[in-house]
Amino acid sequence: MKYKYRLLIILCALMSFVGACRKDPKPLKEESEELTADPSSVAKGFYLVNEGVSNMNKASVDYLDFRKGLYRRNIYNEANPTVVKGLGDVANDIAVYGSKLYVVVNGSDKVEVMDVNTSKKIAQINILNCRYITFHNGKVYVSAYLGEVGNPNAANGIVAQIDTATLREERRVEVGRQPEEMAVAGEKIYVANSGGYNPSNYERTVSVIDIASFKVLKNIDVAINLHRIKADKYGDLYVTSRGDYYDIPSKLFVIDTRTESIKKSFDIAVSNLAIDDDTAYFYSTEFSYHTGKYTVTYGMLDVRDEQLNGKQFITDGTEAKIMRPYGIAVNPHTKDIFVTDAKDYVSPGELYCFDSTGKRKYSVTTGDIPAHFAFVY
Amino acid sequence: MNGVKLSLGIFSGIALLFLSLPLCAQEHFTADTAGRDNWLNEVKIRQVKINKEQTSQTPLQILSGEALQRLNSLSVADAVRFFSGVQLKDYGGVGGLKTINVRSMGTNHTAVFYDGVQLSNAQNGQVDLGKLSLDNMEEIELYNGQKSTILQPARGFASGSSLYLNTALPKFEEGRTFRMKTSLKGGSFGLINPSLLLQKKGGENFYFTLSTEYKRANGRYKFRDRNGEYDTTIVRRNADIESGRFEASVSALLADSSQVTSRFYFYKDQQGVPGSIVSNVYDFSQRQWDRNLFLQTSFRKERGRYRLIASAKYTNDYTRFLDPEYVKDEGLLLNNVFKQQEFYISVANRYSLTSNWGVAFSADYQRNSLDANLERFPYPTRHSLLAALATEIKYSDIEIQGNLLATLVDDHVEQYFSAGKKSELTPTVMASWKPFHDSDFRLRAFYKNIFRMPTFNDLYYTNIGSTFLKPEYATQYDLGFTYIALLDEGALLSQISVQADGYYNVVRDKIVATPSASLFRWEMRNLGRVHISGFDLNTQTGWKFSDQISGNAGITYTYQRAEDVTNPELNYKNQIPYVPIHSGTLTAGCEWRHLGLNYSYIYTGERYNQSANIPANHVQPWYTHDIALRYERSKRYQRYRITGEILNLFNQDFDVVANFPMPGRSYRFTLSYTY
C-alpha cells in the first residue's frame, strides 16, 4: 500500500507541473519603439510590410512615424482583430494611394485595402497568386501569376485593373508567364515577365500595356527571368534580369520608353533598386550554383547619364552586419536611405537607416522578412 | 475553459489510476538482444521479471502486444507519441505526414527498421510513420543511441536513435497450423479500414504469413480557429486518402537450425495534399501518389561460439506530386515524379572469445539512386559502405559495449556536380552496472558520436539543393537508471518499473533550409548548432484489485532545453522551433471480465513555431484525452472484439505544425475476429 501512495504523490506532482494550462487566445499585440523624432519631416512616415515566410501566415505591417520618431511593429492584428487569420501569408508588395493603403498578399491570393490613417481594413480584392501593385489615374494595377486555377492551358499571368473608388476589378489583360513588377510611363504600363516556374523556358520580355485600350501593344525582348522594373524621371526604365543562377549572370538593362528598346545594359547584378531624383541605389545578393555562394554588393548609379557613379550609400562598415539585404527605399526629402535585413528569413528582420553620407542613423527590429515600403504624406 | 478540462483530465486520470490493474504485456519472449532468435518457438507466454527495457545499456522503450492494442492507434505514428523524449511532427488528419523527432536531434537522425532491416529514404531521409500500419505489428521499440547489441547490421550502429517495428510472429498453439485475424475499422473522416492476417504452418519448419489491408477516408474534419475576437470553424478539405498494403512472408527453419525469412511488402496510395491554412486559403488542389515495395531476406545461423545474420533487400519507391495551381508553361502543370531504388546487403558476425567477452564485425553495402523529372536534375547514385567493429564484455555486474563505425559514401551524378566522397569514423561506448545483488536497479550510460549524410534532396533538388553540404553531426551523452520490482502476491500494486535518463546532445553543422530571395530558390547550408539537455522518465505500473479486476497505469515525462547556439547575433540560446520544454503522457487502463477501459492523455507544453522566442511565434500548449472501451469474448481459439474510441474527447483545437490544424473530437469503431 505504501507504494501506491508514493506513486500517486509522484504522479500528482508531475501532472500539476506538466499541465500548464492554455491561456485564452488574444490577437497579437502591437509593439513600439522610440527613435529620434523629426517633427518637421515632410513625409509623415512609411509603412513597411514584412513578407513572412511561406506557409506561416505571418505577413505583418510596421509603421515608422518620422515626426514622432516612433516605430510601431505589427499594427495589423490589433487594428483588425476580427479578420480571420489576419493579414495572411507572404505579403509581396505595399502601396499608399490617396487615403488608402494596399497590401498585396501573395500566399493569401488577395489585395488587402486599409485606411491609411487607421490601418483598418476597408475591403479585400481576391486575385490568385498576386504579386505587385502600381497606380495610375485613380486605378490600381495588380500583376498576378495565375489567371485561373486548374487550367493547364492558362499559363500566362495577368494584370488586373481595379477601381480605387469601388474597389472592384474592372478589366484584366494577359501578359507573359509569372509577371513581376510593373512601372507606369506615359499612358502605358510596363510589366517585367519572369517565366520563373519553368527555368528551361524563362520569359525574356517586358509587356507594354496601353492603359486606355487595356491591351498588350508589344513585348520588348530584354533578357531571361526579369524581376524589377523602375521608371526614372527621364522616361527610362531600369529592368533587372535574375539570370539562371548557373551560367547566365544577373544583369541590369535600361529601356528608353520613347523608342521602347534597350538603350543600355550593365553587367552587374541588381536584386533591388530605388530611384530617387537622379540617383538609383541598389544592392545585389547573387547566388551561383558553381560556387554555392552568395555575393552581396551595394552600389549607386546616375540615372541622368546612365553611369555607375562608383559611390557607396553605406560608408561606415555597417554592411558587414547585414546578413541579407532585402528591401530598399529613399526618403526623397531627407535623402535618408533605408535598407532592410531579412537575416535568415525565419527570424525578425532589421531596418537600417543611413543618412545621405552613408552613416548609420539608427536600426530597429522588424517583422519577418521586411521587404517593401510605402511612404505616407 | 481549458483549465477545467485539464483538471477534469487529471482527475479522471487519477481516478483511473486508483482503479488500475494487471499489466502490460511484460511478457517478452526472451531478453535476447540479438533479435528474436527463439521466435520460432511455439507460444510460451510467461511472466518474465526482467525484460530488455531494464537490461538495455541504451534507453529502450517498448510497446508490444496488448499494450500496443490498448493505445487506440491507427498507425505507428499514433503509438510512438507515448514514448518519452519524442516529438511527433504531425501535419494532421489520416493522410498527413507524420515524422518522429527523438531528443530534438531532428527527424533525419532516427532510423526506422522494419523487421530488422532499415526503411531508408535517400531522397529526404524521412519515413512517414502515418503510412505504416499497426495492424500486423507485434512490437515497437525505440532505442536512444542504438540497439544495445553487437550482433547487428552495420546500419544498426549508424543513427542517433532507432525505431524498430517488429511484425507479428507466427505463433501456433499446440496442434494448430492455421491462424487468422480479420478486422474492420471505421469512424470519423469517412474512414473504412478492413484488414486480414493469415498465418500458416507448413510441415514442421515452414511458416507463411500474409497480411493485407485497405484504407479509405475522405479525410474531412472540422477544425476551429480563434483569436479571442473571432471564432470560426472550417472544414479541412482535400485530405482524402486511399491506400492498400499487401505483405507476404515465409520463414523456414533449416536442418542445421539456421533460419531464413523472406518478406515482400507492397504499398500504394493516392491522396489529396492539404496545404497550410492561411488567411483566405482554405481549399487545395494538390495531389500525391505513392508506391513502395521491397523484398527482403535475412538469414540467421548459430554454431558454437559463432553467430551470423545476413540480410539483403531491394526497395523500389515511386512518388508523384501534382500541383494544378503551378502552371509552368502552356499545357504544363507542375507534375514531379520521383523514383528511388535501393539495393542493400549486410553481413554481421559475432564470435564469443570467452563466455564474458564477445566481438563482432558487420559490413553493409547500399546503393541508392534517384530519378526525377526535374530540370537540371543530376540523377544521383550513392554507394555507401559501412563497417562496424564491436565488442562486449561482462564483468561481474558490469557490462560494457563499444563499437567503431566506418562509413564511406561516394556519390555519382550524371550531370552537374556531385557531393563526391565522404568518409567518417564514429565511436559509441555504453555500459551498465547493477550495483545491488538483491535489487533490479541498474545504472547505465552511453556516449555516441554519429552523423547523418545530407539527403538527395539536400544536395541535388533542383534550385534548392547544395552539393557543398557536409554531414550533420550529433554527439550524445546519456546517464540513467532502470528499476523494476514485482511486488508480493496479493498487493494492490503488483508491478512497477521505472526508467529515467538525463542527457546532453550537441548537433552541429545542422543542415538548414531557408527560403531565399526568390520564390523559386531555397538555400541549404550547414548552419545550425544546437545544444540539447534533457531528462526522460518512463514509469509503468501494474495493479491488481481483485481476481477479476486488474489495471495498468503509465506515465512518461520529458524535459528538454534545445538551444539554438548557431549565431550569437541571432536568436541565441532560444529554444528551437516545435520543441516544448515540458511534455508527457499518461495512460491508464483497467479490465473487468469481458470489458476493458483505456484512457490516454498527451501533453505538449508551450513552444515556438520559428526560431525567435517572441510572442508572434509562441504556440499554446495542447493536451488531448482519448478513451476507449472494448468488449471481448473468447471461445477456445476464437476471439471477438469490439472497440469504441473517442479521440480528443474535449474537442481541443490545436496545431502541431503551424497552420496544419489537427482534428477535433473524433470517433472510431473496430470489430475484430481472431481464430
UniProtKB/TrEMBL annotation, chain A:
<dbReference type="InterPro" id="IPR051200">
    <property type="entry name" value="Host-pathogen_enzymatic-act"/>
</dbReference>
<keyword id="KW-0732">Signal</keyword>
<dbReference type="InterPro" id="IPR015943">
    <property type="entry name" value="WD40/YVTN_repeat-like_dom_sf"/>
</dbReference>
<dbReference type="Pfam" id="PF16819">
    <property type="entry name" value="DUF5074"/>
</dbReference>
<protein>
    <recommendedName>
        <fullName>YncE family protein</fullName>
    </recommendedName>
</protein>
<dbReference type="InterPro" id="IPR031815">
    <property type="entry name" value="DUF5074"/>
</dbReference>
<dbReference type="InterPro" id="IPR011044">
    <property type="entry name" value="Quino_amine_DH_bsu"/>
</dbReference>
<feature type="signal peptide">
    <location>
        <begin position="1"/>
        <end position="20"/>
    </location>
</feature>
From TrEMBL, chain B:
<dbReference type="InterPro" id="IPR036942">
    <property type="entry name" value="Beta-barrel_TonB_sf"/>
</dbReference>
<dbReference type="InterPro" id="IPR000531">
    <property type="entry name" value="Beta-barrel_TonB"/>
</dbReference>
<keyword id="KW-0998">Cell outer membrane</keyword>
<keyword id="KW-0812">Transmembrane</keyword>
<keyword id="KW-0675">Receptor</keyword>
<dbReference type="InterPro" id="IPR037066">
    <property type="entry name" value="Plug_dom_sf"/>
</dbReference>
<comment type="similarity">
    <text>Belongs to the TonB-dependent receptor family.</text>
</comment>
<dbReference type="GO" id="GO:0015344">
    <property type="term" value="F:siderophore uptake transmembrane transporter activity"/>
</dbReference>
<protein>
    <submittedName>
        <fullName>TonB-dependent receptor</fullName>
    </submittedName>
</protein>
<keyword id="KW-1134">Transmembrane beta strand</keyword>
<dbReference type="Pfam" id="PF07715">
    <property type="entry name" value="Plug"/>
</dbReference>
<feature type="domain" description="TonB-dependent receptor plug">
    <location>
        <begin position="54"/>
        <end position="151"/>
    </location>
</feature>
<keyword id="KW-0472">Membrane</keyword>
<keyword id="KW-0732">Signal</keyword>
<keyword id="KW-0798">TonB box</keyword>
<dbReference type="InterPro" id="IPR039426">
    <property type="entry name" value="TonB-dep_rcpt-like"/>
</dbReference>
<feature type="domain" description="TonB-dependent receptor-like beta-barrel">
    <location>
        <begin position="205"/>
        <end position="649"/>
    </location>
</feature>
<dbReference type="GO" id="GO:0009279">
    <property type="term" value="C:cell outer membrane"/>
</dbReference>
<dbReference type="InterPro" id="IPR012910">
    <property type="entry name" value="Plug_dom"/>
</dbReference>
<dbReference type="GO" id="GO:0044718">
    <property type="term" value="P:siderophore transmembrane transport"/>
</dbReference>
<feature type="signal peptide">
    <location>
        <begin position="1"/>
        <end position="25"/>
    </location>
</feature>
<dbReference type="Pfam" id="PF00593">
    <property type="entry name" value="TonB_dep_Rec_b-barrel"/>
</dbReference>
